[in-house]
Design a protein that fits this description.
2 domains; single chain; 401 residues; 14 helices; mainly alpha
Length: 401
């Protein structure tokens, strides 16, 4: 009689396509491809050279697809991969996973073709994906009695609320502000929570093995206070950005986040690019808080879009690539090492983020074009390099019929 856990035995019975054997596969690949394709479509639309068949304003469509389209895909891939580790339960795979991925894809098509199908229908299809993801994740966490991670679903709930607000705003007023900001706030808070686990954890593991010495500080009251102040700052930024205290709370959160990052010993990780990129990506979190706070005090000197893109192009872009590359390598049985191609993807994404922030301070549109080109190359590069493994490489645990 086999002594393998029942869940592991059941996983080994999976005989379907490798792409639908684990949640990270379709969502990381689909998300990266969409991150590249949507920018490829948006830039000519933004300058008036090309029109996509969407009823949404150019900036609204772009913002939504980056936050709720790409961001939603990466969050789905992360949760559907992490939850089995948290709960010890069977991962969602096969037909249910394929159906969830198809629902995400339907949302992208609906948003792209909203001029033809109508804003209401597009909103219903798009919103359904995040709601279904939350229900699946809730079922797994409750069944596994993993109560600690219910707070992650709380942040997912905020993301769903932001998406609903976005659609209501667009249907009623023709454009969105609160919905986009609420989505950004939810994802940055999620990075603060999840990043606070994985960055020091992966750093500690590597340092103990390869570079003994100073280690990341363990989670403490300081981290809890930093998360609380950051959540407050984000809430104020979304709800009352013009409130006199909002810039100061944002600046306080930025300083606290910078100190938090310094406590994780990232300066000792230059030899391992898989670990280093986590620190570099997280550095855009405090930068976003600081730039957004300064923009509130001196909007004439610091454009609001500088802080916004430090969070989105920087923190979201690099942190998600860091997680996607690491998870894809580990879960497809490959060595946890950043190849030259992987490092090129990181550098392209970093360059895209820096240039996108810089473009906020300049009227020179060439900087925006170059940032977009680097972004497309980074995420297209991930899809090209990792796509074949995600589609064809069998899971390490599977006998694959």
């Amino acid at each position: 009689m086999s002594t393998a856990p029942a869940a592991l035995a059941r996983r080994r019975e999976y005989c379907g396509p490798a792409l639908f054997s684990y949640g990270f596969r379709p969502f990381f690949l689909g998300g990266a491809a969409w991150a590249a394709l949507s920018i490829l479509l948006w830039i000519p639309q933004y300058v008036g050279a090309f029109a996509v068949p969407t009823a949404h304003a150019s900036l609204d469509w772009h913002g939504h697809e980056m936050i709720y389209g790409y961001g939603g895909a990466v969050i789905a891939g992360f949760l559907l991969t992490a939850i089995p580790n948290w709960t010890g339960r069977l991962p969602v795979c096969g037909l249910p996973l394929a159906a969830l991925a198809a629902l995400w894809l339907a949302g992208r098509i609906a948003m792209l073709c909203s001029a033809s199908i109508g804003l209401g229908v597009a909103a219903a299809i798009d919103t359904a994906f995040l709601v279904m993801l939350a229900l699946v994740a809730l079922r797994e966490i409750v069944a596994g009695r993993n109560w600690r991670n219910l707070r992650v679903l709380g942040v997912l709930g905020v993301l769903i609320a932001g998406n609903i607000v976005f659609h209501v705003e667009v249907i009623r007023a023709g454009t969105s502000s609160y919905g986009l900001h609420l989505g950004i706030a939810a994802i940055i808070l999620l990075i603060t929570l999840i990043g606070g686990r994985i960055v020091p954890s992966f750093t500690r593991n590597w340092l103990v093995r390869a570079n003994p010495g100073r280690l990341p500080q363990p989670f403490s009251r300081y981290d809890a206070a930093c998360i609380a102040v950051s959540a407050l700052a984000l809430a104020l930024w979304v709800a009352v950005p013009a409130f006199a205290a909002t810039p100061f709370v944002l600046l306080a959160a930025g300083l606290m986040q910078a100190v938090r990052l310094a406590r994780w010993a990232g300066d000792r990780t230059f030899a391992d690019r898989l670990v280093l990129v986590l620190h570099v990506g997280y550095a855009f979190v405090p930068l976003g808080f600081l730039l957004t706070g300064l923009s509130g005090l001196r909007p004439d000197a610091v454009p609001a879009s500088a802080g916004l893109h430090a969070w989105t192009a920087g923190a979201v872009g690099l942190m998600t690539l860091a997680v996607m590359t690491r998870a894809s390598l580990g879960h497809t049985g490959r060595a946890l090492a950043a190849t030259p191609m992987t490092q090129a993807v990181y550098l392209l994404a970093f360059g895209a983020a820096v240039l996108r922030i810089a473009s906020a301070f300049s009227s020179e549109v060439t900087i925006l074009y170059l940032a977009a080109t680097l972004w497309i190359a980074a995420f297209g590069g991930f899809a090209a390099v990792y796509g074949p493994w995600l589609i064809r490489r069998p899971p390490a645990w599977s006998t694959m019929c």
